[in-house]
Amino acid sequence: MRFTLRIWRQDDESAEGGLREYTVDDVTPDMSFLEMLDVLNERLIAEGEEPVAFDHDCREGICGMCGMMINGVAHGPSRATTTCQLHMRAFADGETITVEPWRARPFPVVRDLVVDRSAFDRIIEAGGYISTPTGSAPDAHAVPVPKADADTAFEAAACIGCGACVAACPNGSAMLFTAAKTTHLSLLPQGQPERHDRALDMVATHDDLGFGGCTNSGECTAVCPKGIPLETIGRLNRDVLRAATRPRRD
Q: N or C: which end of the chain has fewer CB within 10 A?
């Protein structure tokens, strides 16, 4: 297979970036998208050119680092798939593929396809934890949790923080990420004491960091590689409304 790649190249956040065109030959259908970029980079290095910078780690679809826009879609054309798990058989031989970094004000470009997603860390620091003293670890079955709640909490906990929801949202909102990180705690007994303060603090941090507001367009869940549903945001909204009528914990 042969592809023409239009890849965004940018030296750093302050530099002016632009699309550069490359041709890649001898691509097999079973190559992942990142393996195809590896082939390109090996050639660029051999030719004395700067390789394309992109984030990656596990290459197993669980770390969330490999985010990029592929033909205008976060992570590419396959649903519920990270870029590292996207195979070249998803594209037509001879196709032109445009590859760009996430586009969001809180995600400044570090270099080429790499963006700084530390804004997500700030949201987690605002409340994505449990600080209630619980003593020694209890047995796993010691605290009963309804199966429906356990399943929903696990579904939300599957969020890998890749940022696709932000990149796809027309408002640059990170509400699906924020909702996932509150939901998996708010449905479990250990997360109840701080439930409402957590919702307020994490949403306030989300807004302070410059993420946009959610208007329920649904683009976030359409590109989420873990399929986190839009109802997760509704659950967070309910917690925020309840929190607004309750006194804050000391």
A: C
Q: What are phi and psi of 245, to 5 degrees?
A: -105, 5
What is the 8-class DSSP label of residue 77? S
Q: Which structure tokens are listed for 215? A: 């208007």
CA distances from 170 to 73, 101, 103, 146, 189 (A): 12, 15, 10, 36, 35
Please say whether the beta carbons of 64 and 82 come within 8 A.
Answer: yes
DSSP at 19: E
pLDDT (tens digit per residue) in 72-96: 999 999 999 999 999 999 999 999 9
| 117-244: CATH, from 2.60.40.10, 1.10.1060.10, 3.40.50.300, 2.170.190.11 | 1.10.1060.10
Give the separation between CA 186 and CA 188, rounded to whole angstroms.
Answer: 6
State pTM to two decimals. Answer: 0.93
Amino acid at 247: P
Q: What is the pLDDT of residues 121-169, one digit of tens each?
A: 999 999 998 886 667 777 767 788 999 999 999 999 999 999 999 999 9
Q: Which CATH class is domain 3-110?
A: alpha beta
Most confident residue range from 21-30, 127-136, 191-200: 21-30
- Secondary structure class of 123 (helix, strand, coil): helix
What local confidence, expressed as pLDDT, does residue 250 receive? Answer: 56
